[in-house]
Design brief:
two-stranded antiparallel sheet, 9-stranded antiparallel β-sheet, single chain, alpha+beta, Alpha-Beta Plaits, 17 strands, 9 helices, about 350 residues
């Protein structure tokens, strides 16, 4: 940045005091996990408990986040599922649908993903506004998503470290040691040699959106701001169509997250509310050639949560992720019966 390090440290600490959280972006492909996105409608009798059910899924079966859409009330459920269990995981949700939990379900899978970097060069700090040419973007960014990373060897200690760094990357190892009870030298070795050495982290993200879940307090955290998130899901598209769409979304300074599959693309965009009209027009033009295979959703920020992944779902002895479909289905079947009976 060309600034004195003490000045940068001062402004960094000021950001943290304002409630902004720096989080590690985990390389889920290195952990042998595939991203699955489901668009679901809950049956009316379970709508009031939908978020509690999804929080339970985050602890039992790999759900990483969810958002509720406006005005139709769909839930977009994002999971990171072990490669070998993707089909059984999808089948599990369909079986829950057969039991009456969902009235509709759609699925798409993605090989690679990333949190897009912020484009501070497009922000006018003196005027306090984004300078972006909506009709003809000044820069067209190329396809920047890399292919999926190869799976790496991992153990429970590595996962515990990543879990805490995914929650707050500024948390020192000494505090993680207190939280986990793992010997500090062992923790430091695994952080240096495994987590960093084996490239288990893709990078870092600034969580100014503020949708996170605290399992200790059993509460979600939401920040109030003047931005409107919009999610885009495209299925059945060709590589050239995907490359063109990605070039346009990556030209935007408002791209938060994107994921790519063989014939699918998913993007989370966060627009300043004063630019919503221009944003809608931009997206309509960008998606016009693929509008029959594209869906986009306004996101209800008050009903959106993100979670850390669960190391307890990993069996350290066999060095494999676990997924017992029948056991999980039985737990949710009991939960649904309790909800229906009003208990």
């Amino acid at each position: 940045m060309g600034e004195h390090k003490e000045s940068v440290r001062y402004w960094f600490k000021k950001l943290l005091k304002q409630g902004i959280v720096i989080q590690a972006s985990v390389n889920f492909e290195r952990l042998g996990l595939t991203r699955v996105v489901a668009v679901a409608d809950f049956a009316s009798e379970y709508e009031s408990q939908a978020e509690a059910i999804l929080i339970a899924m985050s602890q039992l079966c790999y759900v990483q986040s969810f958002v509720k859409t406006l005005p139709d009330g769909h839930f977009i459920i994002k999971a990171t599922v072990p490669n070998e269990f993707v089909n059984p995981w999808i089948d599990m949700l369909r079986r829950l649908g057969d039991q009456g939990l969902f009235t509709s379900l759609e699925f798409s899978t993605y090989d690679s993903a990333r949190n897009a970097p912020m484009k501070s060069d497009l922000y006018d700090f003196d005027a306090g506004r984004w300078e972006f040419e909506w009709s003809t973007p000044a820069k067209v960014y190329p396809d920047v998503l890399e292919g999926p990373s190869p799976k790496a060897q991992v153990d429970r200690i590595d996962l515990e470290i990543m879990k805490w760094l995914q929650r707050d990357e500024t948390k020192p190892l000494s505090e993680i040691q207190k939280e986990t009870g793992i010997n500090y030298k062992t923790l430091s070795f695994h952080h240096r040699k495994h987590v960093l050495g084996r490239q288990m982290l893709k990078g870092h993200k600034v969580n100014w959106i503020g949708t996170s879940y605290n399992p200790q307090s059993d509460r979600g955290k939401h920040r109030r701001h003047t931005y409107q998130p919009i999610d885009i899901i495209l299925n059945g598209i060709t590589p050239s169509e995907k490359s063109r769409i990605m070039g346009l979304t990556n030209a935007l300074p408002f791209l938060w997250f994107e994921a790519s599959g063989r014939s699918s693309y998913y993007a989370q965009l966060v627009f300043p509310t004063e630019t919503i009209s221009e944003a809608m027009e931009f997206l309509a033009r960008a998606l016009l050639p693929v509008k029959d295979r594209a869906r986009w959703f306004m996101v209800d920020q008050k009903h959106s949560l993100a979670f850390t992944f669960e190391p307890k779902l990993y069996d350290n002895e066999s060095r494999m992720w676990t997924f017992n479909q029948s056991e999980i289905l039985a737990k949710f079947e009991r939960l649904l019966m309790q909800i229906k009976s009003g208990r």
